[in-house]
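Protocol check, entry for the methods section draft. Step 1: assemble the input record (protein sequence plus ligand SMILES). Step 2: submit for complex structure prediction. Step 3: store the structure tokens unaltered in the notebook. Ligand used here: zinc ion. Step 1 record:
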Amino acid sequence: MTELLSGGCLCGAVRYKLKPGFRMKPYACHCTDCQRRTGSAFSSHMLVMLADIELTGETDVGEFVQPSGVRSRIVGCAKCRARIYATNDKRPDMASLRWGTLDNAHQMNPEAHLWVKSKQPWITIPDDVPALETQPDDDAGWMKLLAPDLR
Ligand SMILES: [Zn+2]
Ligand SMILES: [Zn+2]
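Step 3, stored output:
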């Protein structure tokens, strides 16, 4: 899945193109931080290159310092406050796209579930999708789980 994709916020003031390039597979994160940040049961992430996001419209940024000390910033629409992507100090070249904002999100599925130890009890994870109690320990683990299939 390396084609040009497009997406945007709720009110339409922010639109973006995700240019073809390196992108990891989409996943769902059930950690308690994601639950609080979204006000929902999990959040939908896809790691992409920050430089591949071509965004128009006025944005604003929310900041949060994770317990590890890593500062994360989440960028969204300044008008409707829908969140589009997050970055953090640890991997400054990459962005974690909230893939629910993609126009074709309905054609995508999470290809892994992370932090299932804190998932809400009413969510049932399909048997054929990898589910981790927490998250991969290191970059190699992330690559193994979510690296794009090379065709
Ligand atoms: Zn908006
Ligand atoms: Zn999370």
